[in-house]
Amino acid sequence: MPIFQAVLFDFFGTLTRSVQRGAAHRTTADLLGCPPDVLVDVLDRTYYQRATGRLGTAEATLRWVCEQAGVRPSDEAVRSAVAARHRAVRADTRLREEAVPTLAALHRRGVRTGLVSDCTHELPAFLPHLPIDPLLDVRVFSVQVGRCKPDPELYRAACRRLRLAPAACLYVGDGGSQELTGAERAGLTAVRLAAPDLADHMVFNRDDAWTGPELLSLTEVVDLVDAALPVGAAGPT
Fold first, then answer.
1. For the chain, what is the mean pLDDT?
2. 192 vs 215: CA distance, rounded Å
């Protein structure tokens, strides 16, 4: 087994618990004058178009979504809806209890950490306010890179920023966006987080064909890294 010098994590469903759109998203639909079910349908079928960032700013992207939904809100309504959507996505985000301890334990072992996430404009805005942010050495967001998983460029961008070869990195994700297959194609070792709560997770393009190793908890990532370290090199848990 390789000696991992870094661990890269997916965000939604991996460092967070299962994600579902909460009631706060209704406010966004109301501000846009759009039936909630219509808005959800458009958001679901355009996720990857929006997550590349190629539609422009958060306001430009939401206005494009409105065009797909057949509504024409005012500029003021769009600005208010962008803020409401930011609050709604943030409200949906609950870090796993073991997220901070796992990242901290990896750092104590001299193992660097990073985030590779398919996301829209909201995550880069609120991540700096989460307790995991100081424990991340690199952050790669699809909305900023212009590509989504399983594109190998996302993983390789993280490796370049760490100045590490892909073979020196472990990737951990729940399997959305075929991210595990993508990580392996980019040269990383990949493991799937199969925590019980993920049965209800909102996910797109799941890596259903994945047959590789699985973990039930983020704490097992530390065990996996310890097993790959030279004898005597593991730090305190």
1. 91
2. 6
Amino acid at position 106, single letter: L
Q: How far apart are CA 135 and CA 48, in angstroms?
A: 28
Q: How many residues does the chain have?
A: 237
- Buried b or exposed e, range 200-221, using 16+ CB within 10 angstroms: ebebebebeebeeeebebbebb
Closest by CA to 50, choosing from 82, 20, 91, 21, is 82
pLDDT band at 230 (very low <50, low <70, confident <90, very high): low
DSSP annotation of 34 reads -
Beta carbons within 8 Å of 161's beta carbon, 6+ residues apart: 114, 137, 138, 140
Comparing 112 with 210, the larger pLDDT belongs to: 112
> Which residue type sits at 181?
T
Residue 42 has pLDDT above 80, yes or no: yes
Sign of the CA dihedral with 38 first, then 39, 45, and 46 last: positive
* The two three-digit tokens of residue 192, written as one number: 């799937």
**Tokens found for residue 136:** 């991340």
- pTM over the 0.85 mark: yes
- Element (H or E) spanning 42, and its range? helix 36-45
Q: What pLDDT, on a 0 to 100 scale, did the predictor assign at position 232?
A: 43
